[in-house]
Amino acid sequence: MDEIIIVEYDPRWSQQFEEEATTIWQVLGNDLVTRIEHFGSTAVPGLAAKPIIDLLVEVRSLKEAKKSHTLLEALGYAYWQEDPRPGQMFLVKGMPPYGLQRTHHLHLVEADSDLWERLLFRDYLRSHPEEAQHYAALKRQLAERFKTNREAYTNAKTDYIQAVMAKARRHNHKNQ
């Protein structure tokens, strides 16, 4: 069972990201990787979250990255080859047979991916702690309601995330 558990912010998450990003970069190399960002709730100081580090990895070629999945599997990642979302390569660390609980989500994308816009959400929550606390309360509610249904939990956050993204876009536009 893959239960959804929300925990208080852990300041070690940023260090765990740095360590994993360094490892990913070393394994895949500069010829493939151009940048790695920490995103998702663990990237927002003070925000309660599922204790899973999300890494957004920009690669020069997704086609080439897919050829490297065995290198990431050697680090304990499970590659979801049937991922229905085009334009990304998604891997999970910590799932059986590599562990009992997810620890990292790895999203490999090219520079033109829509996933990069998620950094706006992260940055908005970082600069608006009251919004981050509102989001934490919502996540706790939904985790209780959808304890073992990740898809329903994620889908139930959609309207809220879209509303915050609209604010983030306006905020970003004003500050440019």
TrEMBL record:
It holds the Pfam family GrpB. InterPro entries: GrpB/CoaE, NT_sf. This is GrpB family protein. It comes from Gloeocapsopsis crepidinum LEGE 06123. SUPFAM superfamilies: Nucleotidyltransferase.
